[in-house]
Design a protein that fits this description.
Length: 295
């Protein structure tokens, strides 16, 4: 098998690239900026349709892992950025899908819990169509999903949430940085979901690529649904930081430009039903991540 990974400069793309390499899969990585920490690298702007078609057809992979995306959720709300968000998350995804169609390769597209409106307390199922995303980022990722599903038959759409990994900025790092500067932090307690360690997710995605069990999946670590407040408390506990964590509502916190969904519970039962190994608990994932980084 030969693989092509977009967004290797980010947390998930970096881990997917290295997971595939560890399995002996010949893998080409790409990103819009030069990445010196990966080999077999090609610079690629996914919004350039000609470049996408040329490079992917030249490399002729069996599967493309599309991890590149505009992920700055609050910045996406700025009027000056909305066209850029759509260019990256919708038209860039369409360019990748068209190239995959041309060479008949599989495509794995990474989506998000933000495609849902966050209402209620029931876990969202992969086949649920009550989307109504609340922000520009969520709408762009949903439109990206539709591009993939409309153009391809050999695709996996994998919705993930609250990701953290070594190669980037994430909630865990933010909490650790705050813990070095203050003895009290305010964290929202009404946004519910589950963390996802990119190291674990990369293994699942690599497993998927070796199958033909196409469709839409939800993936995050096991261990139960929690609030971001719960996650922060566990981060400080495992890091042995003596920090007071104050729970606040999203409305009380009030610093975000983008509206966040309150209910990000994802139903992941389809993974086991289709024979995929579920991810370890988020508590275990956090422990391993803290051992991986210097904090």
């Amino acid at each position: 098998m030969k693989a092509f990974v977009t967004g290797v400069g980010g947390q998930l793309g970096y881990d997917v690239f290295n997971e595939l390499k560890s399995r002996g899969v010949f893998t080409v990585g790409s990103d819009i900026l030069r990445c010196d920490n990966v080999d077999n690298y090609v610079q690629l702007d996914i919004t350039d349709s000609g470049a996408v078609e040329s490079i992917i057809t030249r490399e002729d992979p069996d599967v493309v892992f599309h991890c590149a995306a505009w992920t700055a959720v609050d910045d996406a709300e700025d009027e000056d950025n909305k066209d850029k968000v759509m260019a990256a998350n919708v038209y860039g995804t369409q360019n990748i899908a068209l190239a995959c169609k041309k060479i008949n390769s599989k495509m794995i597209y990474i989506s998000t819990d933000y495609v849902f409106n966050g209402e209620g307390e029931a876990a969202w199922k992969p086949d649920c169509e009550s989307f109504e995303p609340l922000n520009v980022y969520g709408r762009s990722k949903l439109d990206g999903e539709r591009c993939v599903a409309d153009l391809l038959e050999k695709y996996f759409i994998v919705r993930v949430e609250w990701i953290f990994g070594k190669n980037g900025i994430n909630f865990v790092n933010t909490m650790l940085d705050l813990g070095k500067k203050t003895d009290t932090v305010r964290v929202v307690s009404d946004q519910i979901g589950t963390p996802t360690y990119t190291h674990d997710l990369a293994k699942l995605l690599a497993d998927m690529a070796q199958t033909e069990k196409y469709g839409i999946y939800h993936a995050s670590n096991e261990g139960g649904y929690i609030s971001r407040y719960d996650f922060a408390c566990e981060i400080f506990k495992q890091a042995d930081y003596n920090i007071r964590v104050i729970p606040v509502t999203t409305r009380q916190y009030g610093l975000s430009k983008a509206i966040r969904p309150l209910n990000s519970r994802l139903d992941k039962s389809k993974l086991a039903a289709m024979g995929f190994e579920t991810l370890p608990t988020w508590q275990d994932a956090l422990s391993r991540y803290l051992m991986e980084i210097e904090y």
